[in-house]
Task: inverse folding
């Protein structure tokens, strides 16, 4: 039952596309062929252009806002003070945890 279902679902798209595989298609005229330059422009130029456009749109906000971490414009003193205070607090918490356990931690620690 399952194999028949898989075979039928596989064959249906091929049957629907049967007219596309016809060699003597008498339908609408395909139109003039594209030149090499037009083909390269469509399949190479447009994707590169879209890539550059998306890259530009992603980078514009950082250009407008500016980089706040550059040394020539200085650090924000409030955020630097907060970072130092949180680092000191983390060091104190680790020291308290090590003192409470009574041993060393890590791979050779005593639990």
Result:
């Amino acid at each position: 039952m399952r194999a028949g279902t898989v075979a039928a679902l596989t064959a249906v798209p091929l049957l629907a596309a049967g007219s596309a595989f016809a060699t003597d298609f008498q339908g609408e005229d395909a139109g003039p062929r594209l030149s090499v330059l037009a083909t390269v422009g469509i399949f190479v130029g447009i994707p590169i252009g879209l890539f550059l456009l998306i890259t530009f749109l992603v980078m514009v906000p950082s250009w407008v806002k500016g980089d706040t971490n550059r040394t020539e414009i200085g650090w924000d003193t409030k955020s630097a003070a907060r970072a130092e205070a949180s680092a000191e607090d983390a060091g104190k918490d680790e020291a308290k945890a090590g003192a409470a356990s009574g041993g060393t931690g890590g791979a050779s620690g005593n639990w």
Q: What stands out?
A: Residues 36-65 form the longest helix (30 residues). The CA atoms of residues 17 and 63 lie 50 Å apart.
